[in-house]
Amino acid sequence: MANWKYVGLNKDGKRVSGSVMATSEKEVRKILRNEKIRARKITPPSILEFDLGDWMVEKGFAAPFGPEELTNFTKQLAIMINAGVPILQALEIIYKSEKHPVLKKAVKNIARDVGEGQSIAEAMEKQKGFDNLYCNLVKAGEAGGILDDILNKLSIHMDKQQKTKAQIKSAMMYPFIVTAIGFGVIWGMMVFVVPQFVGMLADTGQDPPAITQFVIDASEFLGNHSVKMIGIFFVLFIFLKSFIGTPSGKITFDKVMMKMPIFGLIIIKGNLSTFSRTLATMLGAGVSLIDALDICVETIDNGVIAEDVRVIRREVVQGKTLTEPLMQIDYFPDMVSQMIKVGEQTGQIDQMLEKVSDVFEDEVNTLVGGMTKMIEPIIIVVLGSLIAGILVAMYLPMFMSAGGAD
């Protein structure tokens, strides 16, 4: 925000002048209209007062804030409300200390709307980055007078959700990165190192063994067609990304990923953990089961599991318990279904769902650790064997020539 000077006429027609803090001329005029002042001249802030962050947000150049920034904001707001700080004062303190320009502007807008009489949830619904889960929980916290407790639960939920997503992403990216680096090394050997040996072999005048000839032919192919291959892979990548961007493509891709060894289990357990914890948090805050299931669909990354949750919601609307449709899903463990059934019977379903989420998180940790230990030696053996095969193929004619000379 910066200091804008103005000259105008008040409601009595008298000339007035002054300054207001705002991010743009449009906001200045809005503020003045609310004060019944008709602006005649507005002077923008000097370059010394220019706020680059506000300007980037206004022009759409600033990156949106992510879960980490939102989690920190939630924790700070919960602490201050619990300490008895009035909501407007708490928002003002967070605004002054916030570094992310988009979240900083969102906090300012929320404080303005709350100051005008709107609820916190209503003000947050207008800002990008505050999803339905967040806003519904805040609304429930306001209605029940337990906003600080709800914000604490929300921050814990977001922390664990991001941790689970990071584990899934790490499990998928680690082997890809290691394999890509390994094949990059092999490509460099085939394109730049093997041709050096070809000249040396030509000087001996002997026919190379079959394995050596195969490596030489592969080297020539890569040297002549690498650019074309990169272009083809790039086109395939764009096509695959576009296909996954469609609803049917997303479902197909998710089905394939779910059937992959180990990776599939990690994806399933991770998404079920997110589903269980989200549902537990919503029910614990007093949100109805139907509305909670609606919001759960939005938080699940996997299209197949999200569609199954929609089916669960439809059956619950028809009068079935939560356990009945869950037991019909083949990838949902029977033991977990029984735990939820006990929670329904005892009236402690939210607490049981939290325990279920903990079970899934532990299983994801175990799967990721086991996969890493298993994949590392496999990748090392495969890539090492390929590199060793190339070296043996190149040195074999020399060893044969040396043996013949003896």
From TrEMBL:
Annotated membrane topology: Multi-pass membrane protein
Gene3D superfamilies registered for this protein in UniProt: Type II secretion system (T2SS), domain F
Gene Ontology annotations of biological process type: protein secretion by the type II secretion system
Principal location: membrane
TM region(s), chain numbering: 171-194, 229-249, 378-400
Short name of any one Pfam family annotated for the protein: T2SSF
Cell compartments where the protein resides: Cell inner membrane; Cell membrane
Top-rank lineage group of the source organism: Bacteria
Annotated GO CC locations: plasma membrane
PROSITE patterns membership: T2SP_F
Domain Type II secretion system protein GspF: 73-195, 275-397
Keywords assigned: Cell inner membrane, Cell membrane, Membrane, Transmembrane, Transmembrane helix, Transport
Cited InterPro entries: GspF/PilC, T2SS_GspF/T4SS_PilC_CS, T2SS_GspF_dom, T2SS_GspF_sf
The family this protein is said to belong to: Belongs to the GSP F family.
Protein name: Type II secretion system protein GspF domain-containing protein
Species of the source: Halobacteriovorax marinus
Top-level taxonomy: Bacteria, Pseudomonadati, Bdellovibrionota, Bacteriovoracia, Bacteriovoracales
